[in-house]
Amino acid sequence: MALKNSREANYPEWYQNVVAAADMAENSASPGCMVIKPWGYGIWENIRNIFDEKIKETGHENCYFPMFIPLSFFQKEAEHVEGFAKEMAVVTHSRLGMKDGKLVPQSPLDEPLIVRPTSEAIIADSFAKWVKSYRDLPVLVNQWANVVHWEMRPRLFLRTREFLWQEGHTAHATAEEAEAETKQMLEVYRDVAENALALPVLVGRKPEHEKFPGAVDTYCIEAMMQDGKALQAGTSHFLGQNFAKSANISFINSEGKSEYAYTTSWGVSTRLIGGVIMTHADDEGMVVPPRIAPYQVILVPVIKDEANRQAITEYIEKIKAMLKTLMPFGEKIRIKIDNRNKSSVDKFWDWTRKGAPIICEIGMRDVEGQKVMVKERLKLGTPEGKEIVGLNDFVAGVCARLEAIQKEMFERAKKRLYDNIRTDITTHEEFEKYFSNSNRFIKDGDKDAVAFVRGKWSGDKNSEELLKALKITIRCIPFDQSGTKGECLLTGAKDATIDVIYARSY
Question: How far is CA 362 from CA 1, 323, 371, 384, in A?
Fold first, then answer.
């Protein structure tokens, strides 16, 4: 029951097929936008809930700011506007009217409104009202919202004109405190990516030409997809006093002097779901890490004789009642009984394509023997992927089973990541030859696939144009620098000292 396109045959088409077969999302009648369907949104809800708890644990509170931002707010920060100008959606009129039988915009606004691409500008305006003294600091807020980037080449979850995200914003009395905040939230992102999404990441700082518009420093987590391309999975920005100066976020310090606050911002989005798909899905469909699966255990009745329906139904309800007391990962287990009017075979393949971690098929033989037919999505097609287990043993072991699935998914992805970071490319000539090849699905043991290269960079100011010519990017400057010298892989300069990660990206 494999998908129409395999990862090896056509990776981009395979991705779209996974989303469709798992019934996660679809393109909307609004161009460039998507409808997130219940299974896809359920994954997002679980990601959101895990992040929300972690964010609140670090002292932040949730709030909400308007999605319409006066154009003048952006005009105060030229660098920020330049970074987002091509992606902005602008509201210029307040209503529609009829003219020659057609609807046309009427009542031009006195000032155009930008549909939120990110909220630094309008949140800075509020911070300026809230912060008067050093006693008002720090300000630690977070919001869950939708944003609009006018993407020209949309792809479900990865790039759509409207998407969902979390954005945190803080203000501090000192640069040291603000930078510590930036790195603290980066660590939260790494923790959730690896321990909830089973998404191993590299951590580091963005080069100058890849920084968030207006930031002093941008830090990031970078993941490797199954075709060797990178996906930026989260960013955290130290904004210095740039936004504080443009919005006049000033305060009287402990010495009675006025100074500008230091601000930060940080965010992740529904793009993470695209990363989960491209990290874990296979040629049969989606595979969802148990921690973020909308349902972790699916109970499928197998009714071949209507006379047995009641007995099977009661047995399944008994199993559900026993499971409901369990708490894998410290949270209540999520269970679904599939009573749809479809064959048990069709139901199994529906949940297989959705990537539900555990699918249990329950027939009359199971009722009579007090057994459970257990199928693990991660082990589909292997001898270990299907087993008949006693009811009490199944219930007693299901938490450990889910946790083992979560761990194995992470370890598989981690192995792929570290097996495909090339460190043996040391010259510009080798580098160009390596990236002259196209990316492809990385099979186990494939040592020739194009993926990540860790090597030297001189920091040349022309790097952005050189990278564009090679159609690659510098993903990050890892924190664990070697301190050695070598040949810059991008320019050929002989005394380069900066270690970076080079890759193609989404």
Answer: 21, 15, 8, 18
DSSP one-letter code for 155: B
The angle, 0 to 180 degrees and rounded to 10, between the axes of the packed helices 38-57 and 271-280 is 110
Annotate 19-65 with DSSP letters as a single string: HHHTT-EEE-SSTT-EEE-HHHHHHHHHHHHHHHHHHHHTT-EE---
Helix H or strand E encompassing 314 = helix 309-323
How far is it, in rounded angstroms, from Cα 45 to Cα 226?
25
User: What is the spatial distance between Cα 275 and Cα 285, in angstroms, rounded to a whole number?
Assistant: 14
Q: What does pLDDT average to over the chain?
A: 96
Q: Could you report the per-residue pLDDT of 276-307, keeping only the tens digit for each?
A: 999 999 999 999 999 999 999 999 999 999 99
Estimate the share of the chain in helix, then strand, then coil, as percent rounded to the nearest 5.
40, 30, 35
CA distance 134 to 270: 36
443 in helix, strand or coil?
coil
CA atoms within 13 A on the CB side of 296: 25
Q: Over the Cα atoms of the chain, what is R_g?
A: 26
